[in-house]
Amino acid sequence: MPSLGLHRTVEDMRAEVAAWKADGLRVGLVPTMGALHAGHLSLIEAISKNADKVIVSIFVNPTQFAAHEDLSTYPRQEAADLAALETTKTDAVFAPTAAEMYPEGFSTAVTLDGPALGLESEERPHFFGGVALIVLKLLTQTQTDVAIFGEKDYQQLMVIRRMVADLNLPVEIMAGAIMREADGLAMSSRNVYLDAEQRKIAAQLNVILQQLANNPASAAQAEAEAKQALLEAGFTKVDYACIRDAQTLGVPDAKTVARRALIVARLGETRLLDNSPAI
Ligand code: PAF
Fold first, then answer.
1. Residue 102, SS3?
2. Are the C-beta atoms of 245 and 252 separated by less than 8 Å?
């Protein structure tokens, strides 16, 4: 039995948060879909330095998966996740059911613009609407003071920051640095889908990303070179390899103060994401 609090309902979760807040404690939230790896654990460690109590939510959110995507096969390992969390600075786990989050008759959606346009939305037009909806629910359900999101999903982080600013939500959004395997591959719950041959090719993603990020050629030239290098390395499809404005995720222009290189490339059915600050 875990010694950390495990809550299945919003009511139970809120009761624990209310008790913490009555004691004047600052609450932090790490939203996850489970299948926890070292990247998630680093988010817990980072937020624990900025909160007195840490909640980890585990919920595989159906509204961010399209009908043809991997919702039914997405890795689920709650017992292993809870055991892993026991060794961290987690105080409570919020692991609601789909019926708790989306009860019969649920009819509300979040509409997005700005950083949600393009990139991931080209391939997955449903995705950020689902993410924004569930994050908005988690933030209001837990009434957290601070929440953290990994920079690996950079566009997701920018969409959430924009939503929180636009809706004046009283929560601080922290960014967690990308955690990497020894060969540079960004940690992801979906890396388990890679076979041995694909796993070797996958290590080239970060190498090519760094070339793109530091390429002094024009953005168009650098992007074309990165795409070519990915295909030559053995990636089966390149969804995008591009340089964007780091805040708006639009094409860089005279107002751009920082640039970001972003790549999504596929090995078979598996999409691998990575990104880095760019010159
Ligand atoms: O990044 C994720 O794991 C998910 O998109 C999130 C933020 C937990 C929402 O389901």
1. coil
2. yes
| Three-state DSSP class for residue 59 | coil
Q: What is the dihedral of CA 14, 15, 16, 21, to 10 degrees?
A: 80
267 in the same domain as 208: yes
* Substitution candidate for ligand 1 out of 30, 32, 63 with most atoms within 8 A of CB: 32
- CB distance 169 to 195 below 8 Å: no
Q: Which of 37, 40, 68, 126 is catalytic?
A: 40
Contact 54, 5 (CB under 8 A): no
Task: Point out the domain boundary residue: 124, 143, 176.
Answer: 176
Query: Within its chain, how far is the Cα of 140 from the centroid?
Result: 18
Chain mean position to CA 142 = 18
Write out the two tokens for 250: 């639009």
Coil, strand, or helix at residue 276? strand
Give residue-wise pLDDT tens across range 66-122: 998 889 988 899 999 999 999 999 999 999 999 999 999 999 999 999 999 999 999
Structure tokens at 162: 């924009």
* CATH number for position 231: 3.30.1300.10
